[in-house]
Predict the structure.
Amino acid sequence: MTEQSEKSRVGRRGLLSGALAGGAAAVAAGALSAPRAQAEPRPGDACPVPPPRLWTRKQWKAVPPEDPAGVRVEPFGPSLIVVHHMDYPNSTDYSLEHAFELSRICQYDHMHHNGWNDIGQQLTISRGGFLMEGRYRSAEAIGRGGHVIGAQVANWNTAAIGIENEGTYITELPPEAQWRTLVATCAWLCHRYRLAPMTAIVGHRDLNQPDTTLTTECPGNALYKQLPKLRADIAEAMGLPVGDGSPNHVREDLPSTRTGPAHDHGPALGPLDPTR
Ligand SMILES: [Zn+2]
């Protein structure tokens, strides 16, 4: 391990123990303390799977953040990768143009309705399987092994990177193209950040748990039930032991937590989050 990565690791541990002291989810504490050595590539190892093509903010014509200087870029990577559904319609338009429009609509929604500085998540995947950069400077940060703090999982934004999947997956599952991109994206992030898929891949509800004030059904019962398979598919793509895919910890059949119209996948900001 390099001195730099040891520093990052220590920094993350300090951060996470702080977050946990703040009352965050016990299940994640278990996941975070689990061994992660199996995913440790040696320095200089090539990514075992080709990174998926990432469409940039410039390509989907993002507007700048309201306050670009307020976007915080951490030098260390996240410890968790959070899978969301967007609670948007299950569109059958699988085109790139639709994917770009999806990102623009989402950014507008987050900035003008939620009052956030920018689009909340770091990454977005359309139902057609197109991966797009989310929050300002996310692609650059991932490329350097760092982390842009987003607005996607309440109280955990400093420690977690979020992938928003277009669609609503309470009863339906993502289309094949979207699933393939999700697997490839997670494998890329796990490699990039030296994370083990069995412990790093969580659903939004794992961190903002049922029966708390910050609760969500995200990423939907159907997609949440697929997370063990997702972890196994990622591990397989990375050439790691697959095992049982690591079972879920939170109830898989949750009643709907929707209180209003769609486009509300659950709490994205909490008192422990440093930016909006
Ligand atoms: Zn969510």
